[in-house]
Amino acid sequence: MMQLLLTTLNAKYIHTNLAIRLLYQLNKNKGNVSWKEFTIKQTVAEIVQVCMGYDVITFSCYIWNINQTLEVAKALKAINPEIKIVLGGPEVSYDWQEVLLLTYVDFIIVGEGEIPFSYFLENYPNLKDATNIAYKYNGQIFFRADSVSFDLTNYDQCLPYVDDDLPSLKHKILYVESSRGCPYKCEFCLASLDNKVRQLPIEAIKKNLLFLMQHGSTIKFLDRTFNVRKDFTIDIFQFILANHQPGNVFQFEITADIVHPDIIKFIEQNVRPGIFRFEIGIQTVNQKANLAVSRKQNFEKTSSIIKQLQPYIAMHLDLIVGLPHDYWDDIKDSFNQVLKLHPMELQLGFLKFLKGTPVRQKYLEHGYVFDEKAPYQIKQSNFLSTADLQQLTLLEAALEIYWNKPRAISLLKYITKHHDAFDFLLQLGNRFAATHSLHAYGLKEVYQILKDELDAAYAHRPVFKTLAAIDYHLQHKVKPYDLFEVSLPKQAHFECLEQLQLNAHLYRFAIIPIDHEAIKFLNIVPLLDQYLVIQFNGRENPIILNQLQSVGPSLSDLVVR
Fold first, then answer.
1. Where are the alpha helices (DSSP H) in 475-561?
2. Which of 131, 406, 455, 521 is the most exposed place for a label (fewest CB within 10 A)?
3. Strands, DSSP E only, in 69-161?
4. Where is 348: in which H helix or E strand?
5. What's the CA gap between 106 and 217, in Å, rounded?
């Protein structure tokens, strides 16, 4: 009997692949079907060693793994030409002909996989009546398309993760889908090609959620616009809040400017911080660029809703570099406006020309040049030069290092209010790249480079160095040395400890002089009229001993997330 393996190469160990689990649950009683996950960081030899025991290997393919997947397929065929290689997934569902011509690829499942995969299992090797399966026979390519969609009510009893090693789920990101398709038609996104939104059975969603809440930690919904149905959204939120376990975190992709007032009211009344995360694709503030890729967005309304929900929901916001009619100054404007919203994370992505998307099909209209291999990232256009894009990659690196981690959060929040964050981070990214690797560095280098930039370009703004020093100290469980040279001399330090009656035997303290500008921004009551005091116990994150003013934001925003 045929031995078949469902597999994929995930980007990281913590990721999981929902597709192969769903296909396994639907078909595990139809023969010798197994599943296993690898990562793109594993060697080809290591993956091949595991796969060699099977007759058919079915790979789930995406832009992040297609190159490594093809390397594995080629190596498998070189060792055993009788092994059959089946590819499926979004990366091979469009413009698949060239991939199928490779000598080490035998079959490609095109589009949604449930129906053609089951047909393959039940009928292989006789596939003459197959639909949505492309294959080669006697040097010819055969393919018959069928627009039929899988009936999602078939998942009414499905628990995709039930056959996992359950203790391992606590340490991984677990993906859930409650619907397929997207109501929008953004021309850079594959989801827009399936404009019909279909729902899974509500009881099946809840049953699966309950299982994942009991065994997992981070649960991420794959729905492209989770909040498109108000009553469903509130129902799922209520179910999660009634059943979630300590440590559970849930991430949803939402469209902010259509969030219904009832959803906002529900969140304000019921959701406490730390449970929900929202991913919101802003992409650009430039309306001309939005319209060029068939997007509609009211940024003013989006910003308002983000601000309303931020006390309760952690925000992950997305921008895209390279959209049509988005010039350098447009990108700068979008970046500064969005960073002023102070999201927990801001992703600055670069336009990718995914197979099947309209933006790829129309690339000549805007002078686009992009990488021929996945992930098909923009190289230049009529709107951005190669040099522009190289500079923007340095901005993205600095954003990741200093905001998203976050290592300079109070300094950057101040800069978004009083300065130009785009220019600052771009300068910082250039300094980082000129002095150190952007991919291999330690905390020492992160802050030394920041200090060098402040000394060179912002010596006239002492508040910058004060806030940077606070950020630096808050990243250490053990009191670090005074890199930014702002702490008190030794004698004055111990005199302050004595006046404040602080226990220098049990704890260590950093005492940082702060001026009125820093006091006002941090919204704190200074100790002894002029100091901020940070306490270290050597085991946990440090704490700030100053009290908050009567009105204002929480200093917890400055502590390591």
1. 490-500, 516-522
2. 455
3. 84-88, 107-109, 133-137, 140-142
4. strand 345-350
5. 38
The alpha carbon of 299 is separated from its chain's Cα centroid by a whole number of angstroms, namely 21
Q: What does the mean pLDDT of the chain come to?
A: 95
- The dihedral through the CA atoms of 379, 384, 385, 388 has a sign that is negative
Looking at residue 420, its amino acid is D
Question: How far is residue 114 from each of residues 21, 155, 557, measured CA to CA in Å?
Answer: 11, 11, 45
Q: H or E stretch including 230? A: helix 230-243
In the chain, the percentage of residues whose pLDDT exceeds 70 is: 98
CB-hemisphere CA count at 13 Å for 206?
Answer: 15
> pLDDT for 149-188, tens place per residue?
999 999 999 999 999 999 999 999 999 999 999 989 999 9
Task: Indicate the Cα dihedral angle 10, 253, 182, 363, nearest 10°.
Answer: -70
| Distance in angstroms (rounded) separating the CA atoms of residues 177 and 223 | 6
Torsion angle, alpha carbons of 465, 468, 473, 474, to 10:
150
CB-based contact 183:228 (threshold 8 Å): yes
Distances (CA, A) of 302 to 183, 258, 280, 299, 309: 18, 8, 9, 5, 11
CB atoms within 10 A of CB 203: 10
Give the span between the Cα atoms of 358 and 352, in whole angstroms. Answer: 12
**Residue 19: burial class (beta carbons within 10 Å; 0-12, 13-18, 19+):** buried
**Angle between the 328-339 and 409-418 helix axes, to the nearest 10 degrees?**
120
CA torsion angle 35 37 40 41 (round to 10): -130
C-alpha closest to that of 524 among 507, 499, 543, 538: 543
Tell whether the torsion through CA atoms of 429, 434, 438 and 442 is positive or negative: negative
